[in-house]
Amino acid sequence: MPQKRRDNHNIQMQELDKKYYKIGDVALIVGIPESTLRYWETQFTIIRPKRNAKNIRFYTPNDIEMIRKIHYLVKEKGLKLDAAQAQLRANRDGVDKRFEVVDRLKDIKAQLQQLQQALDNLST
């Protein structure tokens, strides 16, 4: 797993303890451009960050998890936006379970790669 993905994954797993996140933080956590987040807001009614008087977006940890699920469907499974929307509408529980399994497997893979690197460093 590339170092950048692992770092983003660690941010996502360890630091979602704040109540709200700005769009730049969410883009870093999920690993997509801010413009993609803005576009997805227009396409997915389930993404509705709160806004302050200056129209600055504030995402909750739940918003971020939903964005990560959309990212999984669109970027990793290769679904088009309308197909991802249909999946979320028709079978949200199934999507949630698959997403959790894939996310956990990625975490295990990253841990195994770290162990392999540590073993490689010991043998050199």
List the helices and strands and how they pair.
Layout: H1 3-14, H2 23-30, H3 34-43, E1 50-51, E2 57-58, H4 61-76, H5 81-90, H6 92-123
Main features:
mainly alpha, Multidrug-efflux Transporter Regulator, Chain: A, Domain 2, two-stranded antiparallel sheet, 6 helices, globular
3D architecture notes:
It contains 6 helices and 2 strands. Helices cover about 70% and strands about 5% of the residues. The longest helix has about 30 residues. β1 and β2 form a beta hairpin. Strands 1-2 form a two-stranded antiparallel ribbon. The protein has about 120 residues and is mainly α.
Integer average pLDDT: 83
Residue share in β-strands? under 5%
Helical content, roughly? over 70%
Gyration radius over CA: 16 Å
Number of domains: 1
Silhouette: globular
Q: Work out the helix count.
A: 6
Number of strands: 2
Low-confidence stretches: 1-14
> Could you say what the CATH topology is called?
Multidrug-efflux Transporter Regulator, Chain: A, Domain 2
Strand order of the largest sheet: 1-2
Order of helices and strands: HHHEEHHH
Protein structure class: mainly alpha
- Identify the CATH class: Mainly Alpha
Largest sheet, if any?
2 strands, antiparallel
Secondary-structure arrangement, i.e. CATH architecture: Orthogonal Bundle
CA(first)-CA(last) distance:
22 Å
